[in-house]
Amino acid sequence: MTDTADTETAEGVVDExxxxxxxxxxxxxxxxxxxxxxxPGVDLWVRVKVEAFGDTAEYLHERQRFxxxxxxxxxxxxxxxxxxxxxxxxxxxxxxxxxxxxxxMTTGYAGGDTRFQxxxxxxxxxxxxxxxxxxDLPDDALVVPTWTHRYPGAEWHEREAWEMFGITFTDxxxxxxxxxxxxxxxxxxxxxxxLLARLVKPWPGIVDVEPMPSTENPEDAS
Amino acid sequence: xxxxSDRRQLAYVAAQAADARVNIELEAEGMTLNIxxxxxxxxxxxxxxxxxxxxxxxxxxxxMGYMHRGYEKLTEVRTYPQVTTLVNRIDWLGSFCNEVPFxxxxxxxxxxxxxxxxxxxRTILFELGRMAHLTLFLGDLGVQLGAVTPVFYAFxxxxxxxxxxxxxxxxxFHPNFDRIGGVKDDLPAGxxxxxxxxxxxxxxxxxxxxxxxxxxxxxxxRTRGVGVIPADVGLSYGLSGANIRASGxxxxxxxxxxxxxxxxxxxxxxxxxxDGDAYARSxxxxxxxxxxxxxxxxxxxxxxxxxxxxxxxxxxxxxxxEAYVPTENPLGEMGYYVVSxxxxxxxxxxxxxxxxxxxxxxxxxxxGTYVPDxxxxxxxxxxxxxxxxx
Amino acid sequence: MxxxxxxxxxxxxxxxxxxxxxxxxxxxxxxxxYLYLFKMVSFMQSRLGPMExxxxxxxxxxAELGKSLQKEDxxxxxxxxxxxxxAPYVVLTSTxxxxxxxxxxxxxxxxxxxxxxxxxxAVSSISVIGILMAGWASASKYSLLGGLRAAxxxxxxxLPMVLAVVGVVIQAGTLNLQxxxxxxxxxxxxxxxxxxxPFILTQFVGFLIFMIAVQAELxxxxxxxxxxxxxxxxxxxxxxxxxxxxxxxxxxxxxxxxFAFLASVLFLGGWSIPPFITELVGLEVDxxxxxxxxxxxxxxxxxxxxxxxxxxxxTYPRFRExxxxxxxxxxxxPIALVNITITGILKVAF
Lengths: 222, 390, 350
What we know:
The structure holds three protein chains of three kinds.
Chain A: H1 16-29, E1 33-39, E2 43-48, H2 53-62, E3 68-76, E4 116-124, E5 129-137, E6 143-145, H3 154-165, E7 168-170, H4 196-200
Parallel strand pairs in A: 2-5, 6-7
Antiparallel strand pairs in A: 1-2, 3-4, 4-5
Chain B: H1 3-27, E1 31-35, E2 47-53, E3 56-63, H2 71-75, H3 80-87, H4 95-110, H5 116-145, H6 150-169, E4 178-179, E5 182-183, H7 191-214, H8 217-223, H9 231-237, H10 242-245, H11 253-256, H12 278-301, E6 321-324, E7 327-329, E8 332-340, E9 348-352, H13 354-360, H14 362-366, H15 371-381, H16 385-389
Antiparallel strand pairs in B: 1-2, 2-3, 4-5, 6-8, 7-8, 8-9
Chain C: H1 10-44, H2 60-69, H3 81-100, H4 116-123, H5 126-137, H6 141-172, H7 177-186, H8 204-217, H9 229-232, H10 242-267, H11 275-281, H12 290-313, H13 321-349
C-alpha cells in the first residue's frame, strides 16, 4: 500500500494521508511538537519535546494504530573532531588531527538544537505509513522517557542507545550493556570517541595492489 | 608430608567442595545453564543464559555482542561504495539483500532511479539470495530437531543457486554487486537459461522437504503449538518477515512498499498462516521459497533490455538529507536510516536489522518452555548472528 | 561347546568362551559400524563417506581405534575420577552379559540357561547405571541433564520390551532361548511345516514393539534425547575423550548388534533356515553343520534388523522427553498388554 494514490505528481504535491496524520499530531501534542518535515509521497519526520517522547508513542499506538515498532536510536550531531571523518585521502598522517576547519554543527530533517537527538520509528501496517519521531536532548541531561510500556521490543534498542551514546531511559526495566563487555569505559558511538582501529594502525589510503609479503623489494611487487 | 599426598589431599578437598556445589545447585531453585556461545544449535556465537527448573525454563536471557563489529561506527568513515561492501556481511547468507536497502536509501536522497533492467536484475538477485537463505533454513530445521539427513540435501541443492549468483556477480557469498544507480555488470550469456534450471532443482527440493520433514508426525508433534506468538505481541516487538506472517499478519514490504525494485511487475502472492507456532513459521518459509522461484521465473522472462546504470557521477556525493527505505529481506524487514551531510561518506547510518527485533522476543517467548523446545523455537525464529550483532 | 570333547578342562573352556564372547561382541559391532555408520548414512546423505583407510574405507574403524588410543586420557577437574573411569565399563558389561545367552547353533552357544530370556532382559538394564554414572561423574550440567533424561527413558522403555517378549514366551512355552529356536523350527503354519513358524508371523505386534523399544534402549533417534546432539552436544558422553569415548561408541553399536541377534532369535527363527531348504540339502535340522552355518545365518538376520534400526535413526527427528514418555506409557504398554492377552487366549484355544 503505497501513497502514490494520494499524491499528485505536479507542482503542488499533496500527500493527504500524511498531512492528515500531521494535523492529528499537531492537534494532540500542541506545543510539544516543535517542528516537522514532510516529504510528500516519501516520509514524515516530527520533532517533539523530550518530555513528550513517550506520550507521542502512546498516542500513535492507541489512536493512530501505529502498532509496529521499527527501532529507536540516537544521532550525535557533533562533527567528528578527528579530521574530516577520518577519511582516507584526508587523514593519512595520524599525528596531525589538526585538519579541522571549524565545521559548524548542523542538524537534519525537522531541525534540532542540541548535540544529541534520540529518534524512533513506528509503522502503521494498515495504512502503510511510517513516521520518524525525534527529540532533542539537552547536553547536561541525556534522559528520555522509555517506550517499553507500549513497545516491549524497544527494550533492547534502548539498552543499545544507552551503552553506545550514554542516553538514559526512565522507567526502563533494566539498562545494562547489550554488546559491550561490562567493564568497557566510554560510549563508542559518540563522535568524540575515536575509531580505535584507525588510531592503532593508520589508514593507508587508496591501495591499488598490496605487495606480496615475501618479496624483498616492495617496489618490484606491483 | 610428601608432595604427592599434599596434592591428593588438595584434590580430595576440591572434589568435596565440587560435590557440595553441585548438590546445592541441584537443591536450589533452578539450575543455570549456558547455551552457547559455542554450541551446535545457535547460529553463531549467541549465548543464552537459561535458568532451569528441571527441564523447564524459568527465565532465559540472550547475551549478544560476541560478534559485534561496530558497523554503525565504521560506516561513518567509509565512502558510499565502500559501505556497500561492508554491509554485505551483516546477514551473510543473503548477502545481496543487505546491500539493497542501503542503495535504495542513497538513491532516494540523490533522487535517482535505476533503469528498469537494473531493477529487474536487482530483484532477481534479491530473490535468489532469499532462496539460498531459506533453503538452508529448511535443512537446518531438520538438524535442530534431530533429523540429520535433510540438511545435506539442502546444501546440495543450494549450490545451484549459489552457482548462479557466482556466475553473475563473481561472489557466492558476498556479491557486492549493487551500485548507486544500478548494478555493476550485465548478466553473462546463457545465465537466464541456467538459472531457470536451478529453479527446478530448488522447487524439487522444496517438495522433498515437504514430504520428508513436514509430513513427519514427529516433526509435527515437536513444532505444532510450540512457541506461539500472538500477532499483537509480535508487532509490538517489531517482529518481521515470516515470523509475523506466520501469526496471521498480512504484511510484506515487497508488495506494500516496493520502490526501486521490480516486484510490482510480476504476479505473486503473500503467504500467511494463522497459528503463529513454530510449524507455521517453518511452513511460511517453505512456501516463500516456492514463491521466490515463481517470481524469479517471471522476472527472467520479462527482463527489459537497456542500460544497467543510471547517470551517476564517478565520485558519489549524496546530498544532505535523511532517508529510510526498508525492504523485505529473507530474515525480515531490514532498513538503513541514512543521515547524509553532503559528503563522500554518510554522517550516520542506523542499521535496522531484522534478527535484532526477532531475537528480542526470546526472553518473553522462552519462559516456561522445555529445553528441547528452546532449540525448536530458536530454530524457527531463524536469526543470523551477524544480523543481531552487526 | 564345539570342541568340548577335546578341551575338557573347564579353565581352557572358559578362556575359549571368553575369547569367543569378545569376538561375538566386537566383530558385529565393527561390521555394523562400517556398513551403516560409515557407508549407509553417507549414501543416504548423497556423499561417499570414508574412502581412504583401506579399500573403500573398510579399515576406518581400525584407524579410529588407533587415533583414540593415542589420545590423552582427560578427566574433568571436578569429576569423580573413579566413577568417571568405571562408567564405560559398566555399560560394556551389560553388553557382554547379554551376548552370553544368545545361541548361534545347536551346540554353538555359551550357556544353555533355562531362564535365558529372563537373564537377557534383566542384564540389559545394567547399562542404565553406567549412563547415570557417566552423567553424574562428569561434573557438567550438560552431562547431568543427559544422564537424567537417559535414566527416565531407559526405565520407561524396559517395560514394553519385556511385555513384547512375553508374547513370544507364551507362544513358545519356554524361557530357554535355544528351545525358542527349536519351537520356531518345529512349528507349523496351519499344518504347513515347510517354513517352520518364525514368531514374527504370529507376534508381529510384539516384534514392532520390541524393535521400537530396542531403538529407545539404544538411545537412537527418534529416542535420543539423552544424547540430543544439537542441544546437549553429546549428553552424558560429552566429557569423555579418547579410548573411553570409543568404548561408549563401540558399546552402542555392539549393543545394537546384540539386540538384533536377540530379536532374530526371538522372532526370526534364530540360527535356523526354513526347514524345506534343510531337507532339500539333505541335512538334519540340528546337524553339526549348523554350528558353522548358524552364525552366518545369525549375522545375516542381524544385519537386516540393524539396517532398519539405522535407517530410522538417520531419517527421523527426535521426540521431546514428555512425548517420549507418553508414547511408552500410553501407547506401547497398553498395546503390548493386549498382545499378551490375545496370545494367551489363542494359545489356550488352539
